[in-house]
Design brief:
- Belongs to the enoyl-CoA hydratase/isomerase family.
- It holds the Pfam family ECH_1.
- This is Enoyl-CoA hydratase family protein.
- With 255 residues, this protein is an alpha/beta fold.
- 44% of the residues lie in helices and 15% in strands.
- It is built from eleven helices and nine strands.
- The radius of gyration is 19 Å and the shape is globular.
């Protein structure tokens, strides 16, 4: 639809979700938030989707919350109240999510980058936690950003609001890759992710996000159960058979 702000397309197992609101630098307006949530739900529930790519049109990936909508609204009416649900969808998606940035991200846009499993940006892209400079707090995005960043760097960048480049974003853990060819790097990652079994990928992602007990025996017991279930499960047995027969497992998309 011409009036959509977020587009959704599925090809060869890859769901591409495109932010298309360049007039306001892909700000998180009420319409954009609603459509993004709907498309993330569609991707998560579609068995044909193996990987989700989140990208954008225009020169900016996402500038954060729509400040025009925020102006004059009370605390209870702020759009930021809906934002945790989007970050949680990205963080807990059973399908790996790859962010592809050809331009800068600010504030809430950086929270989205951090919530994705893999984030790739153009070398020229820049980032900033600009909240304190307009009198607000990077509170909601801290839930996804802080697990990615080194603590000392988080204090510096959250408190100063300083703009930093993609290479530093890689160094501090916000990005996986900074490149001059975002499309090629995205393809490299999506091709690798498509080799993974869908249920194994979902379970691995969930495992990576779980808090672990300090009791090593309990941790081994829980993870042994998980491992054995997948070794003996349909995907594990198919993967073992494919290895022995020197063929691709059934879940690998056809070329």
């Amino acid at each position: 639809m011409a009036d959509e702000l977020v587009h959704y397309e599925v090809q060869r197992g890859i769901a591409t979700i495109t932010l298309d609101s360049p007039h306001n630098r892909n700000a998180l307006s009420s319409q954009l938030r609603r459509e993004l949530k709907e498309h993330l739900t569609s991707a998560a529930s579609d068995d044909q989707v193996r990987v989700v790519v989140l990208t954008h049109t225009g020169s900016v990936f996402c500038s954060g919350m729509d400040l025009k909508e925020a102006a004059g609204a009370s605390a209870g009416d702020q759009g930021v109240n809906e934002f945790p649900a989007i970050l949680e969808q990205l963080w807990t998606s059973p399908k790996p999510v790859v962010a592809a940035l050809k331009g800068p991200a600010r504030a809430g846009g950086v929270g989205i980058v951090a919530a994705c499993d893999i984030s790739i940006a153009a070398t020229a892209a820049t980032f900033a936690f600009s909240e304190v400079r307009i009198g607000v707090v990077p509170a909601v995005i801290s839930v996804t950003v802080l697990p990615r960043l080194l603590p000392r760097q988080a204090h510096e960048l959250f408190l100063t609001g300083e703009t930093f480049d993609a290479r530093r974003a890689v160094e501090i853990g916000l990005l996986n890759s900074a490149t001059d060819d975002v499309d090629a790097e995205v393809r490299r990652y999506t091709d690798m992710l498509a080799l993974g079994a869908p249920n194994a990928l979902a379970a691995t992602k969930e495992m990576l996000q779980q808090e672990r007990s300090t009791n090593l025996g309990e941790v081994f017991a829980d993870l042994l159960k998980l491992s054995a279930q997948h070794f003996g499960g349909p995907e594990g047995q198919e993967g073992i058979a494919a290895f022995k027969e020197k063929r691709k497992p059934s879940w690998v998309p056809a070329d």
